[in-house]
């Protein structure tokens, strides 16, 4: 199950020249990176943070697939794109552009949403906006970019205020907010736990995403993750790994399935991946475990 990608790792999927960055400034809840991009056709993984893209130089025809649907627009200086967190997307453009990315953490945005709504929020999602012009968004991005470039004293406090202002505006105009139920349940129900366990066990050989698991029980990603941890005592990713380990141990104990095939059937990337997980969790290797079980039998 893929982990959400932090902003610092985005260049692995979308290479570009970094023009400015706030990585080492110690800001809370807000991050900035400015890039110079050539034309690209890229798959963007599910990001950890909400992302605002402000176009600064160059114009290009932009196409984006978001949640299964393609949208198209000509993006140029003054335009803004939005991308919600934990959402895979596909971007395609042809010409060179300079952009500023501002990243807002889930904690910041959900905290602001809680205050706006006056009650606990389960999940926030930004709308699918490939192109809009919004003076409030652009001015906030420009001010945050200046702080990243000039590195003046007190920038952390100032940027946190800017991030809060930006979050309020996005929540008012571009977001959908799911509230927790009155008196909200803190964990998955027994029926939901059983449904998730059966679903995972039947698809261990597949790549299981957080979004897919959340949909199995009809919850948003944020709400699902919180309730899952409360019910199972671990994160969804750790749960899946443990189920894979348990199945692998059972197959190895039978002694009839080659180690390489066990890795594939149990959803590990390859035999080396399974060996690393075994060593980290069980302090042994699959081959050694299989030999020991054969000797004991």
Could you characterize the architecture of this molecule?
- The mean pLDDT is 90.
- The protein folds into two domains: 7-179, Jelly Rolls; 190-296, Homeodomain-like (Arc Repressor Mutant, subunit A, Orthogonal Bundle), CATH 1.10.10.60.
- It is elongated and about 70 Å long.
- It is of the alpha+beta class and 297 residues long.
- Helices cover 43% and strands 24% of the residues.
- A hairpin with an 8-residue loop joins strand 1 (17-21) and strand 2 (30-37).
- The chain contains ten helices and twelve strands.
- The strands form three sheets. Strands 1-2-9-4-7-11 form a six-stranded antiparallel β-sheet. It has a four-stranded antiparallel β-sheet with strand order 3-8-5-6, with no helix packed on it. It has a two-stranded antiparallel ribbon with strand order 10-12.
**Shape, please?**
elongated
Q: Please estimate the helix content.
A: 40-55%
* Cross-sheet strand order for the largest sheet: 1-2-9-4-7-11
Uncertain parts: none
Tell me the strand percentage band: 15-25%
CATH class of the largest domain: Mainly Beta
What is the average per-residue confidence, as pLDDT, rounded to a whole number?
A: 90
Order of helices and strands: EEEEEEEEEHEEHHEHHHHHHH
- Content-based structural category: alpha+beta
Count of distinct strands? 12
- CATH T-level topology of the largest domain: Jelly Rolls
Termini Cα gap = 34 Å
Number of distinct helices: 10
Rg, alpha carbons = 22 Å
Indicate how many domains the architecture comprises: 2
The assigned CATH architecture of the largest domain is Sandwich
């Amino acid at each position: 199950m893929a982990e959400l990608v932090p902003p610092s790792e985005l260049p692995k999927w979308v290479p570009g020249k970094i023009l400015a960055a706030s990585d080492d400034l110690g800001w809370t809840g807000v991050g900035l990176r400015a890039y110079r991009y050539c034309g690209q056709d890229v798959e963007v993984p599910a990001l950890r943070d909400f992302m605002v893209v402000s176009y600064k130089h160059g114009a290009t025809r932009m196409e984006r697939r978001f949640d299964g649907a393609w949208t198209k627009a000509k993006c140029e200086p003054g335009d803004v794109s939005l991308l919600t967190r934990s959402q895979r997307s596909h971007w395609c453009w042809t010409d060179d552009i300079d952009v500023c990315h501002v990243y807002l953490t889930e904690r910041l945005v959900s905290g602001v949403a809680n205050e706006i709504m006056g009650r606990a929020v389960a999940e926030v999602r930004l709308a699918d906006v490939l192109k809009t012009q919004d003076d409030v968004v652009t001015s906030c991005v420009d001010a945050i970019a200046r702080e990243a470039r000039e590195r003046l004293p007190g920038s952390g406090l100032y940027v946190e205020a800017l991030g809060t202002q930006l979050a309020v505006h996005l929540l008012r105009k571009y977001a959908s907010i799911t509230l927790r139920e009155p008196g909200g349940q803190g964990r998955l129900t027994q029926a939901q736990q059983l449904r998730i366990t059966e679903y995972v066990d039947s698809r261990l050989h597949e790549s299981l995403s957080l979004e897919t698991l959340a949909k199995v029980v009809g919850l948003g990603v944020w709400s699902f993750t919180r309730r899952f941890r409360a019910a199972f005592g671990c994160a969804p990713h750790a749960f899946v790994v443990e189920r894979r380990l348990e199945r692998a141990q059972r197959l190895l104990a039978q002694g009839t399935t080659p180690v390489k095939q066990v890795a594939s059937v149990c959803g590990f990337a390859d035999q080396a991946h399974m060996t690393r997980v075994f060593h980290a969790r069980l302090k042994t290797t699959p081959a050694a475990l299989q030999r020991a079980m054969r000797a004991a039998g």
